[in-house]
């Protein structure tokens, strides 16, 4: 059974390496490395954003969650999508107009201070690495299930491939791997959805009627409240989902790959259509798995439900569809981790090395070398952490990444563009308060502490009862930025703010 | 895929104070605010109404169309809302772009660039 899957995996690996080979020929300058020379069209970038965003946690995780908990799993689909309105309305165009390679560029455009850049880069690396560990640990477990390869080898294969894409092909290779993945994912999900829908005679009423009795939850399957029982925790999660995307560094760097703000806007609109259609289809994946695979079999393969979609593919289309969906899952992991390596490496090489250590004096060649070595460093670190974390339940790291992005990055981005009085101290305190409060709250949360051995990392009562810190840490991030600004004796540079407003809204003077 | 590197025709070192004071730039900011602020408030309220209602009441569990409950209809409505606001924004942004062009043109002519 695994032979065919293995063969399709090899095809995907070969295809991505060919892309990387061609991309490497066009990756000679830092602009090409970090942003593919801003040469992507709106459509290409829209697909790449979708490919970067729809992680294995979306594809496999949400399908599994809907299959096991019904309506509550769909909350993620809604939140992940509506978040793009925040990106479209508030963040994408000013970011393109003010930034060059990283999110820190945008804040540094207003506050010419190394500390601001340093803290922004720290946040970027923290978010990217949390997200990456979750992806790599998931990848190890998944490839082990799909191909029967050992965890260690699975992580190493994914790790080596992502390093190769980024180091040799930079943003060009990363974007095209994401584009290919987005197309494969949409095709795969569409095929399964159509088969599922056909099995219900293309009747939504029939589908809802039949899943009502298909799971151990019975009638409750279609109602909210199976997974999220605490109202505050539910709202906290939704806050982080809807505000986090606009602060995720690997998504933000995708706006530098297009030539101007109108193209950045178009790419968000295309991405929103693609991602929205995908998340609608998660219902078919989830309901299909609940009806045709069954609760017991899904949980037996993986207690979190991550195997629901591949098992559904097998139940509907046998070995070939199983192999195809497995290969799509593999491509999904590769595309997402490549984007994460690139965002963490850009923050390190562009912000720390070129701007802080070398004070902007590094030559183009030195910067390129730094970018490549930073990519290797980020990859090695993430692989090592993923190997250590093998036995831990790290799925919460994805929500932690969203929480940090929403609490630490978003307040600073918003105030940089919209608040005249905002100053350097405010930017730094806002970012640090958001980062630290999210980390501390998660450390004391039920994700890390459980009285039940094996359920979390440590055994004991959690001091903070909510699984999601957002409802506390997001307001804290905003308050930190405001208080920092008000207590600081530094005056905001009014002239600089005027310049930023003009640049952000018109693109005049953009480099 | 080969949209070539964009030309750097935008003025560098423009007189930002003067541009910010100009009527066309103010019109741009006004037009953006008038659209973006109410739309953002609307989608936040619309979005959070769903988890708040599902958390604190069972009202949405009632069947709406056959076996499909109000909760699911509201969930689908979030998708429709997102797409609709995307389309609406794209349309408005075309007007913003036109004003941006005017601002740029004036900056060039007025010697502010």
Walkthrough of the structure:
The complex is a heterodimer of chains A (511) and B (113). By secondary structure, chain A is mostly helical. In chain A, 76% of the residues lie in helices and 1% in strands. In chain A, 64% of the residues are buried. Chain B is built from 3 helices and 2 strands, in the order H-H-E-E-H. Chain B has a two-stranded antiparallel sheet with strand order 1-2. In chain B, helix 2 runs antiparallel to helix 3 (70-109). Chain B has 113 residues and is mainly α. In chain B, 71% of the residues lie in helices and 4% in strands. Chain B starts with 15 loop residues before the first helix and ends with a helix. Classes of the chains: A mainly alpha (511), B mainly alpha (113). The interface between A and B is large, with 58 and 60 residues.
Quote the average pLDDT of chain A: 92
- Note the main sheet of chain B: 2 strands, antiparallel
Overall average pLDDT of chain B:
85
Low-confidence stretches of chain A: none
Number of beta strands of chain A = 2
**Assembly state here?**
heterodimer
Counted beta strands of chain B: 2
Which H/E pattern describes the elements of chain B? HHEEH
- Read across the widest sheet of chain A, the strand sequence of neighbours is 1-2
Strand percent estimate of chain B: under 5%
- The percent range for strand residues of chain A is under 5%
| Residues in helix, % of chain B | over 70%
Report the sheet with the most strands of chain A, covering strand number, pairing sense and barrel closure. 2 strands, parallel
Number of helices of chain B: 3
Pair with the most extensive interface?
A-B, 58 and 60 residues
Tell me the span between the first and last alpha carbons of chain B: 32 Å
How far do the termini of chain A sit from each other? 53 Å
Looking across the biggest beta sheet of chain B, what order are the strands in? 1-2
Structural class computed from helices and strand pairing of chain B = mainly alpha
